[in-house]
Amino acid sequence: MPAELACFEERCRARFPITEVLYNCPHCGGLLEAVYGKPAQSAEELKKLWRERRMSNAPLDQSGVWRYREFIPFLDDLSHAVTLREGCTPLLPGRLAAEYGGLDALVFKHQGFNPTGSFKDNGMTCGASQAMRLGMKRVACVSTGNTSASMAAYASSAGLQPVIFIPHGNISFGKLAQALEYGAKTIQVDANFDQILALVREVAERLGIYLLNSINPFRIEGQKTIMAEMLDQRDWKVPDWVVLPGGNLGNTSAFGKGLRELKALGFIDRLPRLAVIQAEGSAPFYDLMHSADRSHLTPVGHPETLATAIKIGDPVSWPKALFEVTTSEGVVEKVTEQEIADAKAVIGRCGIGCEPASAATLAGIRKLTASGEMRADSDVVAILTGNVLKDSSYIHEYHTGVLTTGSGMPIVASLGNPPVVLCNDSAIIADYLRVTV
Ligand code: F0G
């Protein structure tokens, strides 16, 4: 069977050619996904091949996404692939973080090591490649920051014009700066993420611009490989839990799909449980999971959180995410701004660091172990989605004790580490260091 697009809705499952420019099912409006036949090689053969490619200097083999190309076979011509050598992100143990989270051990898969500093690169390499294959000239997205930085880099590296829409005043400079540097036409709109997404879809359709938000099924294919790489790095030993932050829920959808497919193809014999963590002021998926009627999601009209990457009130991928969390017997938890800030400082003290949205994972783990949902001896992989330098003003404000929530509530610098000012005198500085370090 060649690669096709399929409607995700169980009652529809309509199929479309992989080369059709579609973001939703034309019949029922459902989300779309890429589907494939079985690969020619067995799981054991592919495990060996994928491992061997780590020794290769070929650009696609050096990519932590395209190395697994038999797992995402939507391109018939690999010369369309656009790569900045994404993926290849490390598994980093965090001893202090494990202790803080109530676990015996904890490993972070740090997607902040990607070329533009977030997991978005895993998906964007595929989205941009599909744009090339379709002969597109311009690509667009709405973003709270990371998607725009990533899309700008991948589009520009392929000679496509990136057009970015961002909520005015609601994105960190570290992210905006990247979009500008990578040559994106950047439009700030006075509206929130969800409102701008609707706007961009209309503009993109009118002008024939290819949309690269996470509703784009090819981005999901690329993000799937995060799970393949994580398992490959663990010699295919399945963890008990994979913990990740939830915003628009593209990653949740991608991880669930990837893990299910790896199981169906015989790479693994069981699924890890997904634990999706949302910020309390922006937790529509948490509400959905905890309501009796899961047939529709009630959007949060005014989402609030300093973790801007997950400040999303109406996540488009919720039907897929609901299916994946349920199938994996997973959970959805929510955490406060204070919990996110403290967890972030703990991850920092492990020498790892991440952006606020990523730290929701550790805050969530702490809650899940406290409630007994997650056992202390569980084998847990938490996904750090973005780089520590993405939101440096948040870090400085936290450590100096001046961080406040959007509504002005102070965040306590429980683990604050402010810089000190001393005079130019070696005796005074020596005295200070003698008592403090
Ligand atoms: N973590 C980071 C660092 C992100 O940038 C995002 C999403 C998420 C988590 C949430 O992931 O949407 O797959 O549930 N950022 C988007 C953006 C919305 O515009 O960059 P999700």
In short:
This protein has 437 residues and is an alpha/beta fold.
Describe the structure in your own words.
- Among the domains are: 1-36; 91-116 and 221-399, Rossmann fold (3-Layer(aba) Sandwich), CATH 3.40.50.1100.
- The termini are far apart.
- A hairpin with a 7-residue loop joins strand 1 (4-7) and strand 2 (15-17).
- It has helices at 43-52, 59-62, 95-101, 120-133, 146-158, 173-181, 193-207, 217-233, 250-264, 284-289, 318-327, 337-349, 356-370, 392-399, 426-436; strands spanning 4-7, 15-17, 32-35, 91-93, 107-110, 138-142, 161-167, 185-189, 210-211, 241-245, 273-279, 331-335, 380-384.
- The strands form 3 sheets. A 6-stranded mixed β-sheet has the order 4-5-13-10-11-12, with helices on both faces. A 4-stranded parallel β-sheet has the order 8-7-6-9.
- With 437 residues, it is an alpha/beta fold.
- The structure holds ligand F0G.
- Ligand F0G binds at residues 118, 120, 143-147, 214, 245-252, 309-310, 355, 357-358, 385-386.
